[in-house]
Every structure is written in structure tokens, then in C-alpha cells.
């Protein structure tokens, strides 16, 4: 009898965490490492949110709470959905988890049976397919090409849907590409979904507030209200509020689905951290005026990275509409050899050679389901980004 579960053979560790860990190990040896692999803002959590957490501690709000969120946070989430997205939810239609990742995982665990399919556009956040596999489902990936701005077409979505499809996972702005679907582009996708009433929509709106230039964020149930009762709209406070470590994600959806998610959570983690919940109340209800200045810094950083990477022969770097990632193609570099003698035959080989020879840590495209590319998180300082991109330029110019 095997000791470990067969389930483990269906999944792999997160490549983004693996690259971050490798970079940390090299840094611990004294190497000069620039980490661009983690999807985490370098801004500190705003003071008014930290103050709310301190006040919660001082008031003794450190006990167990309701499994899926305190009433005050659920009310704040309902108000946020109405204010920002025009979506109406009651507190009974809200779930709060330990990060958006847990909400997504709970949802798939609560709904998938063997043979159920989940349509996932690629490039995708690395955890989507593995969470589907852990829940016993089958991920069906749909590749979005550089030529279409890393966005799938209605025809591609239509072709991917079968009688076994249960969920369509939708993420805009995207991790890893930063691509954002316009309202008209999203309406074309929701029109397809309206023709398939057995398919539910699982959104990941974590980068909602990081929308740049003329791009305006929208979410499926907002664009097509008829999808409201078969959509779970997932969001959280991690990115826009610089609260990654606080671990608060949330979602709004049909009450029976929310009850099923609550049942899963009641037998796993129970409630999210009580202190983090009170901080999230302040994040959603309090001042939002820091978001726009932060976005201006992200735009400046994005433009530094895109400009410097597009100066490299063999790299094509689209300018993303949102989030804080770029996803350049390195098709023109495949087959070359690095100055250290490493053959660049895949984007993983590129990322490993770049880290070992220059100290720049990024994530290879195969981890996100589309190659040959890599992902850079530009959620760090201008100086670090300029230094990193200069090292990438030098590394690529030395390829033969």
C-alpha cells in the first residue's frame, strides 16, 4: 500500500514559488539577485488599513468568527460589488476565504466530479489547472496567441465547450500577461456562454483596480446580467490594497453554491484570520485615493520594462492593459547558446540560464501554459527594473 495519495501524482508544485525559492537560495549564498518572479506589490499596506487591524487586536477581536466571514465584511463586500461592478448580492451570497486562491479551490472542490471539464484560457495563472486536477476534474486549455493580445476568441471558446464542461475560468486583467478584455470583447464571450446554459463562469478579478490607459475593467456578470445566477465573481484585497500576506479573498454567487463552499471551508481551515477580516473591512469601506497614484507608478514601471525588452533582438514584448506583469515572447532566441554555454532550447532553459548567469529571477512561460515566453513582475522599484532589464539585454546580446 502506497503511503502518499495518488492525487499528488496529478499535480506539481507552483513554478512561481519554485523560482522565487531558487532565487532566495542563491541570494543566501551572497549572489546579487533581482527577483522579478513573485506577483506581489512592493508598496506597504496603507496606514488606515493597518490601524484598523491594530484596533481590532486592541478590542479583543481575536476569536473564531463565522466560517466564511464576519457580517461587517460581508456587508462591505456587498457594497463594493454594487459600487464598482453594479452587481447585487446579499450577505448570504458572499463567501470570504483565506485568499482568493482558497475561494477558487473551495469552489472547484465543491462542484467538480470525475469527467467534468473546466475551460481555461492559456496563458493562465499556474494554479488553475492543478486545482482542477486536485478536485478530480479535467482542465481544457485554450491557447491565446500573441497575435490576439493573449485573448481567446469567441470561436475558440465555442469549440472548447462540450457537454462535460462545467466551468469557464476567466481572468482579466490577466496573470501572467496583463491582458485585459474590453467590454465588447467580453460581450462576445458571454454571448457564447449564453448558448450553453450548463456552463458556469468562475471569474478571477484580483487585478480589477489595476487597469491602465483607455482600458476599463468589466466582469462577466456585469456585462451579461443573465449570467448572474451561474457566475461566481471572485476578488480580494491582496493586490490593489497591498495586502498579500493578510490572506483575504472573497466571492459573490448563488446562495446554494456559497453554502457548498462554506461546507468545504468548515472542514478545512474554518474562518480566515479575524484581524485580517477587520482590516479588509477598512480596505473596502475606507479611502481609495491611494490606488490611482500606485497605478501611475505601475504604468511608469511597465513602460520602462516594455521599452527596454523591445530593444532586444529576438524578444517581442506587448504592452499590457493591466495587472503588473509583462509576458514577452522569446521565439527569436530559441536555439541559441548563452555565454555560459547553456543551450536555450526552451523558455525554462532561458529562465534558468538567466538566473544563474546574471542573477535575474523570472518565471518561464511553460509554467503558464504558453511558450516560448517568460513572465516578469514589475511590482518593484524603477532602479531594480532598469538594472534587471540591462542584465537581460546584456545576456541576450551575448547569445550565439
TrEMBL record:
Residues 32-392 form the Aminotransferase class I/classII large domain. The keyword tRNA processing does not apply. Transmembrane segments: none annotated. CDD domains: AAT_like. Coiled coil: none annotated. Its EC number is 2.6.1.-. SUPFAM superfamilies: PLP-dependent transferases. GO terms for molecular function: L-aspartate:2-oxoglutarate aminotransferase activity; pyridoxal phosphate binding. Keywords: Aminotransferase, Pyridoxal phosphate, Transferase. Belongs to the class-I pyridoxal-phosphate-dependent aminotransferase family. PANTHER family: ASPARTATE AMINOTRANSFERASE. This is Aminotransferase.
Amino acid at each position: 500500500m502506497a503511503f502518499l495519495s495518488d492525487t499528488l501524482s496529478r499535480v506539481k508544485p507552483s513554478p512561481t514559488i519554485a523560482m522565487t525559492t531558487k532565487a532566495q537560495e542563491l541570494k543566501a549564498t551572497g549572489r546579487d539577485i533581482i527577483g522579478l518572479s513573485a506577483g506581489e506589490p512592493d508598496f506597504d499596506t496603507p496606514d488606515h488599513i493597518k490601524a484598523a487591524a491594530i484596533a481590532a487586536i486592541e478590542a479583543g477581536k481575536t476569536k473564531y468568527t463565522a466560517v466564511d466571514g464576519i457580517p461587517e465584511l460581508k456587508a462591505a463586500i456587498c457594497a463594493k460589488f454594487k459600487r464598482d461592478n453594479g452587481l447585487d448580492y446579499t450577505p448570504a451570497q458572499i463567501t470570504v476565504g483565506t485568499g482568493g486562491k482558497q475561494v477558487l479551490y473551495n469552489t472547484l472542490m465543491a462542484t467538480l466530479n470525475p469527467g467534468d471539464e473546466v475551460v481555461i484560457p492559456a496563458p493562465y495563472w499556474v494554479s488553475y489547472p492543478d486545482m482542477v486536477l486536485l478536485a478530480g476534474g479535467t482542465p481544457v486549455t485554450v491557447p491565446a496567441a500573441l497575435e490576439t493580445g493573449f485573448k481567446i476568441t469567441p470561436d475558440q471558446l465555442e469549440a472548447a465547450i462540450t457537454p462535460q464542461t462545467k466551468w469557464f475560468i476567466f481572468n482579466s486583467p490577466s496573470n501572467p500577461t496583463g491582458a485585459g478584455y474590453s467590454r465588447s470583447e467580453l460581450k462576445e464571450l458571454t454571448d457564447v456562454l449564453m448558448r450553453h446554459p450548463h456552463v458556469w463562469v468562475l471569474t478571477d478579478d484580483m487585478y480589477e483596480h489595476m487597469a491602465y490607459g483607455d482600458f476599463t475593467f468589466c466582469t462577466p456578470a456585469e456585462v451579461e446580467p443573465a449570467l448572474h445566477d451561474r457566475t461566481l465573481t471572485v476578488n480580494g484585497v491582496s493586490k490593489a490594497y497591498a495586502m498579500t500576506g493578510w490572506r483575504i479573498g472573497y466571492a459573490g454567487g448563488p446562495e446554494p453554491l456559497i453554502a457548498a463552499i462554506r461546507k468545504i471551508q468548515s472542514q478545512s481551515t474554518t474562518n480566515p484570520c479575524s484581524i485580517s477580516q477587520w482590516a479588509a473591512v477598512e480596505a473596502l469601506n475606507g479611502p481609495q485615493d491611494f490606488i490611482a497614484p500606485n497605478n501611475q507608478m505601475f504604468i511608469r514601471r511597465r513602460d520602462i520594462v516594455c521599452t527596454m525588452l523591445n530593444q532586444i533582438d529576438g524578444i517581442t514584448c506587448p504592452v499590457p492593459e493591466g495587472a503588473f506583469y509583462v509576458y514577452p515572447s522569446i521565439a527569436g532566441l530559441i536555439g541559441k547558446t548563452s555565454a555560459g554555454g547553456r543551450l536555450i532550447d526552451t523558455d525554462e532553459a532561458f529562465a534558468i540560464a538567466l538566473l544563474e548567469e546574471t542573477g535575474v529571477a523570472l518565471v518561464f512561460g511553460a509554467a503558464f501554459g504558453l511558450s516560448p515566453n517568460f513572465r516578469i513582475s514589475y511590482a518593484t522599484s524603477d532602479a531594480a527594473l532598469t538594472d534587471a532589464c540591462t542584465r537581460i539585454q546584456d545576456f541576450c546580446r551575448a547569445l550565439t
